[in-house]
Amino acid sequence: MFCSEDQIFPAATVLDIFTIIRIRNMKEFNKAVLPLTIEGTELRLSVISRTGKMDPILFLHGFGSTKEDYADITRQNTFKDYPFLAYDAPGCGESYCSDLNQVSIPFLVQTAVKFLAYNDIRRFHLVGHSMGGLTALLLANMMPDKVLSFTNIEGNIAPEDCFLSRQIIEHPAPSAKAFFDEFIERTLNTPAYSSPLYSASLKQKVRAEAVNGIFSSMVDLSDNGDLMNKFLDLSCPKMFMYGEQNRHLSYLDFIESKGVRLSEIPECGHFPMYSNPPEMWRELFDFIS
Length: 289
What we know:
Elements: E1 3-4, H1 17-25, E2 30-38, E3 41-50, E4 57-60, E5 84-87, E6 96-97, H2 105-118, E7 124-129, H3 131-142, E8 147-153, H4 167-170, H5 176-188, H6 195-200, H7 202-205, H8 208-224, H9 227-233, E9 238-243, H10 252-257, E10 261-265, H11 272-275, H12 277-288
Helix pairs in contact: 2-3, 5-8
């Protein structure tokens, strides 16, 4: 069951009590911890969520990001009636994982399946970015009747999408820590929107021991997992969102011709939630609504 993470306030005077009440009433989403077990690996997922009248939205964050990428949905008046759920993937953010060597894309898919089952989510809009987009794609293929729409924010659907994850092969290192340190340095110096910002918090958002399993499985699935057909075969409405710096992706015209809505975010690379969040939220609402 969920364990509350509500803020614990120190002893307060009578004069302080109204301030405390105001702070507690300002909460725009709930934060909780969900214990799960996946194939013997213990998890404690850090979750944020909100109730609402419409069908819920499940957000799956990308590698090096966290659930808070999507907390600003509470700032979007257009989404005020939409419930949402987001959690830190195992090996990321505030979530705990007892065995980081087990973390991979298939493991993240199993996590999402159990998370949905626990919350009794039967129909939902699905939004995934990068690693979360690939996880979301495989999840949608497992339960196509439950997914009302799928927004893929530069999630992997072809081998060329492994510009981050393929570094696990192209830049071998003697240890997980060494690889991650060098990965962060390369990311810092990548000439792309928000890349330095992204690199600055990677050590705080990802456990180095989880990187190999995540990246290796992303490469294997992108090269051998028939992801393009899996994406196109989904019967739900689909949108592929990408930054203008990545308009060179070779498959954009092709997937558009197959009925996928394209959303190019201006002044943006791989991270619309950092580079141009207002446009990201506008496009997302226009699609989901």
